[in-house]
């Protein structure tokens, strides 16, 4: 156990986060997600006791989001709907992002299911939760730490 680090962040997940560089993306997915197929040999970290919101909160306690892009967050659009529709779970996660100062709702991009899968194929890793809520899949683009780069 380490002080100040969320206990949900396993050694495997901490290693995965530490290996990510600026612009790399990590997926936090529900239990229904086709993680192993889409990961194509990349890390799949399992958090079976966590839901998507809890996992996102833990990961983002250490992972800075990319401030150099307009939408550093993407989420899988619920099938059969059109933006701006968001499920209750998506609204909770996006609300948490805003509340904690990670991203505002406009910085969260709804992404059609197969377009989301395409983006996941290029992600650094997938965190597979035990969340049974379908369409509960988010993608986060890593930023940088250090001095403010914007003049």
TrEMBL record:
Signal peptide extent: none
Entry protein name: RbsD or FucU transport
Single Gene Ontology BP annotation: fucose metabolic process
Pfam families per record: RbsD_FucU (PF05025)
SUPFAM superfamilies: RbsD-like
An example molecular function term from Gene Ontology annotations: D-ribose pyranase activity
Keyword set includes Isomerase: yes
Superkingdom of the source species: Bacteria
InterPro entries named in the record: RbsD-like_sf (IPR023750), RbsD/FucU_mutarotase (IPR050443), RbsD_FucU (IPR007721)
Membrane-spanning intervals of the chain: none
Catalyzed reactions per annotation: beta-D-ribopyranose = beta-D-ribofuranose; alpha-L-fucose = beta-L-fucose
Database matches in PANTHER family: FUCOSE MUTAROTASE (PTHR31690:SF4)
Keyword terms, alphabetized: Isomerase
């Amino acid at each position: 156990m380490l002080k100040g680090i969320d206990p949900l962040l396993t050694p495997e997940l901490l290693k995965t986060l530490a290996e990510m560089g600026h612009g790399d993306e990590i997926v936090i997915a529900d239990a229904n997600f086709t993680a192993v197929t889409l990961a194509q040999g990349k890390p799949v970290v399992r958090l079976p006791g966590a839901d998507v919101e809890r996992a996102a909160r833990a990961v983002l306690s250490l992972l800075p989001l990319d401030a150099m892009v307009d939408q550093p967050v993407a989420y899988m659009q619920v099938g059969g709907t059109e933006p701006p529709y968001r499920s209750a779970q998506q609204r909770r996660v996006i609300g948490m992002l805003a509340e904690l100062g990670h991203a505002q709702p406009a910085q969260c991009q709804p992404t059609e299911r197969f377009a989301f899968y395409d983006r996941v194929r290029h992600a650094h890793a997938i965190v597979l939760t035990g969340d049974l809520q379908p369409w509960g899949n988010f993608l986060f683009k890593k930023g940088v730490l250090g001095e403010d780069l914007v003049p």
